[in-house]
Amino acid sequence: MEVFAIDGPAALRGEIVVRGAKNSVLKLMAATLLAPGRSVISNVPAIADVRIMCELLRRLGCGIDYDAAAGTVAVEVPTEVGITADYELVRLMRASISVLGPLVGRMHAAEVAVPGGDAIGSRGLDMHQHGLERLGAQVTLEHGYFVASAPAGLRGAEIELPFPSVGATENLVMAAVLAAGETVVENAAREPEIVDICRMLVAMGARIEGIGTSRLVVTGVESLAPVSHRCVGDRIVAGTWAFAAVATGGDIGIRGVPQALLPNVLDKLAEAGGRIEDLPGTDSQGSATAEAPGFRVRGPRRPQPIHVSTLPFPGFPTDLQPFVIALNSVADGVGLLTENLFEARWRFVNELSRLGAKVSIDGNHALVTGVESLSGAEVEASDIRAGAGLVLAGLLAHGRTEVSGVDHIDRGYEDFVPKLRALGASISRIEKPEPDFL
Ligand code: EPU
């Protein structure tokens, strides 16, 4: 078993480069299925989920040329792609569901294993299913698989989402770009990753209006062409570093993501006592795809508590929730966090309590009373963000913290340990023996 061993406390100082967003690149890779030929995606982070998506596309018949160091993935899409995404891969990564829309759109058929619930909540897929049905597909659940078919192809429709689901918006847009006629998605999600996918689809020849708004209008086209596309920077990874700077009283320059992708987040960090400014050569409104826009975050001696409600973009992202709780756990006062997206994102809190954090949970609220200092302990990561949140807590704690479940962190954070070391943290990845009495 591998664990991250952290000797805290540490204030992080230095500069970091953030590459493309996990939650965009996986969907961009799925979108390549829409056009036969060679598409190339750049600014790809070296994370485990990218390797899983490469394997998924390979099993659908694509040729993959992945250069982790250069950060590029070339996908050679055949004229006939396979239609089955099996459970072995889907269970490793829920984002596998994002091949459903492109497969039904292009092949008029798909069989995609249904991912189960996970550590952050039940995570329904009804909007994906009902949306595809509105577009004329028949979708049934058979032996744990969504089996979708539309022998005559999809046709445009009006779809109103009951909630701006990121995954459903993406799947429906990717299905609609090759449908006959016009599709309107009302109450669409507006995350920067969705903007990124829409831009790539437009570059492939799709017709999409309202990009970045909650009303997307897609006019179907006959076919799409392969493309080269640079993935948008990872605002959640950038946000992770920004929280680390403020919570540890450090000073981090963060390149690869402009301030404009973190509305609300940087305001909250300023309330916590952080000082934020653009790095030289950056325009804070800078294009999301610019090569190296960035900002610098400096933390106070001790943070002030912050009150946060998670909401769909441009609201405060649920994926940064564990960092809010970690920061509040050492803040000078009481902070309240309200989680509005995932009902079970609290497993992290039990672990944080092992470090001495004072958190009480009531429904979807977490009330955190800051303590002077945390004390290192052994804890276990239950998902990507919880894992990174526990590492941050370990940096705040006195003594040694060991975080297990590091495979979760590897799914979303590239070179996490080397980057933390470069910023001055005392952290290493160590092998621990599994218990031998089981
Ligand atoms: N929902 C439904 N039915 C649906 C779809 C969603 O009830 O058909 C519910 C979910 O159960 C959840 C809420 O709607 O309560 C939001 O789900 P959404 O579909 O927006 O999320 P997602 O597409 O499954 C993506 C990210 C998550 C991120 C959320 C919210 C990817 C691969 N994942 O998930 O990222 O938390 O959007 O922003 O894009 C992470 O990166 O660690 C992560 C969990």
UniProtKB/TrEMBL annotation:
This is UDP-N-acetylglucosamine 1-carboxyvinyltransferase. Phosphoenolpyruvate binds at residues 22-23. Keywords: Cell cycle, Cell division, Cell shape, Cell wall biogenesis/degradation, Cytoplasm, Peptidoglycan synthesis, Transferase. UDP-N-acetyl-alpha-D-glucosamine binds at residues 94, 319, 341. The gene is murA_1. It comes from Brevibacterium salitolerans. It catalyses: phosphoenolpyruvate + UDP-N-acetyl-alpha-D-glucosamine = UDP-N-acetyl-3-O-(1-carboxyvinyl)-alpha-D-glucosamine + phosphate. Residues 278-301 are annotated as: Disordered. Belongs to the EPSP synthase family. MurA subfamily. Its EC number is 2.5.1.7. The active site is at residue 118. HAMAP family: MurA. Pathway: Cell wall biogenesis; peptidoglycan biosynthesis. It is found in: Cytoplasm. InterPro entries: Enolpyruvate_Tfrase_dom, Enolpyruvate_Tfrase_sf, MurA_subfamily, RNA3'P_cycl/enolpyr_Trfase_a/b, UDP_GlcNAc_COvinyl_MurA. Cell wall formation. Adds enolpyruvyl to UDP-N-acetylglucosamine. Residues 7-420 form the Enolpyruvate transferase domain.
